[in-house]
Write a structure and sequence with these properties.
This protein has 160 residues and is of the alpha+beta class. The chain contains two helices and six strands; from the N terminus they run E-E-E-H-E-E-E-H. It is globular, with a radius of gyration of 15 Å.
Length: 160
Amino acid sequence: MNDSEVPAVGKQVIVACAFIHHNFDGVEKIFMPKRAATKKFMPSVFELPGGHVDFGEDIVAGLKREIREEFGKTITVGNPFAAFTYHNSVKGSHSIEVVYFAQFDDIGNIKLNPKDHSEYKWLSFDELPKVFGNGKDETDEEIQLIKRGFALLNGAQLKF
């Protein structure tokens, strides 16, 4: 569903995202699609894939649905490892974003829905600066949690 036009002024929105990772010849990489230039909120920005969870929908089921709708793929969802909040100035809503470790059940034949995304990259930790720009830089909260995801994959301890 393309919900980018639906106002949600004063509403709380739950967003589920997938830190989709895959090991390519010994190098762990994550899947980063680029939002379509026609999007009103964060156009042409690389992001973790996912989307809004429908009212009453299980959060993991919603994440799987979003990945299927946007990329024609199924995923296996692991544990959540990060959450953050932000204000969506286009919709007027406050979003709570929960990020889960995930993997494509099969990494081949990724189909982009052009209403949602224009391209994608598989990026290693060292390649993250390739997605900087359009408001994303070293200080961006999503970039910080992506770095945390890589660290956890490499055995870092959880913080308390």
